[in-house]
Specification:
296 residues, membrane, 7 helices, mainly alpha, transmembrane helix, three-stranded parallel β-sheet, 40% helix, three-stranded antiparallel β-sheet, transmembrane, 6 strands, single chain
């Protein structure tokens, strides 16, 4: 059923008969029905007095008013070439954007951490040592001679230098608050995977001392089975994994004062509200009693 210019055309009846209907009257009465024989056609156009031709029911191949809905294979060569060119341009622009974004995200803005002593020697990082230890480090590695920078490292640590410390002390310092830059929040120092040198710890006993045999037995079982190494690793792992704000101080009673104050303030406020509520309730009861006495 198609509406146009307030004229209604309905298909029905016998043998494909079309029944044009007049528009309803302003008074709300039923319209007058007029019938007219028509031939069977795929699309029928009816003409009325003072009205233009009525379009037939829209088919799948008809053109819409908003644009051409023809399939792509029915377009002209110029239209298909333009669509192909636009598709290629859009594809190239999208891929170029993705490549730029991936390059930006994967490009690291920081230098890779040094791993070995050879990389330290090749780099431009200086090796700061105390003047009293210069001869000792010169005897360890001749490649470090050109990297040595004499500084009093007992007072301060310079950011553009590397230092030599024991593994335990280095792991503790790297995991502490002192290694955090307050401006950026990044770590100032890190530990190289390669060790510069190692030193042996030993105890001296007399040959005929009674503790020699037991001390040897204890040392073989303690260090030979890696029990000592296991204890040390667990200890430093616990310190280095501890949050930075709690690395140097544990939770104490002083940290809970604020919570206790909030609790006390809440209890006091609740007590005041309860007292006011009781007083108001008593006052209301008293007013009711006075009102009843006056009415009597």
């Amino acid at each position: 059923m198609i509406f146009k210019d307030k004229l209604v055309c309905a298909r029905g009846g016998v043998d494909g008969e079309e029944i044009p209907l007049k528009s309803p009257t302003p008074g709300g009465k039923d319209p007058v029905v007029m019938s007219k024989k028509a031939k069977k056609k795929k699309s029928t156009t009816s003409h009325g007095q003072g009205h233009g031709p009525l379009p037939s029911a829209a088919g799948p191949e008809d053109k819409e008013s908003s644009g051409d809905s023809s399939p792509e294979h029915k377009l002209s060569r110029l239209d298909r070439f333009c669509m192909l060119f636009i598709s290629i341009v859009v594809f190239l622009l999208c891929e170029s954007y993705l490549i730029k974004m991936l390059t930006f995200m994967l490009d690291t803005k920081y230098e890779r951490h040094l791993q070995t002593i050879d990389e330290l020697i090749v780099s431009d990082v200086k090796f700061c040592v105390d003047p009293t230890e210069e001869s000792f480090f010169r005897s360890i590695d001749s490649g470090l001679v050109s990297k040595l920078l004499l500084r009093n490292i007992s007072r301060e640590l310079y950011p553009n230098c590397s230092y030599c410390h024991t593994c335990d002390w280095a792991r503790y310092f790297v995991g502490s608050k002192g290694n955090v830059d307050p401006a950026t929040g990044f770590n100032k120092f890190y530990i190289l995977k390669e060790q510069l040198f190692g030193n042996a710890t030993f105890h001296v006993f007399m040959r005929n001392d009674l503790l020699v045999e037991y001390f040897e037995w204890f040392g073989l079982r303690l260090f030979g089975t890696s029990i000592w190494k296991h204890w040390v690793d667990n200890y430093w792992r616990d310190i280095t994994n501890r949050p930075r704000e709690q690395a140097s101080a544990m939770l104490t009673t002083q940290d809970l004062i604020t919570l206790w104050r909030i609790l006390c303030y809440g209890i006091a406020f609740a007590f005041v509200v309860l007292v006011v509520e009781v007083i108001m309730h008593k006052k209301v009861q008293l007013m009711k009693m006075l009102t009843l006495k006056q009415n009597k």
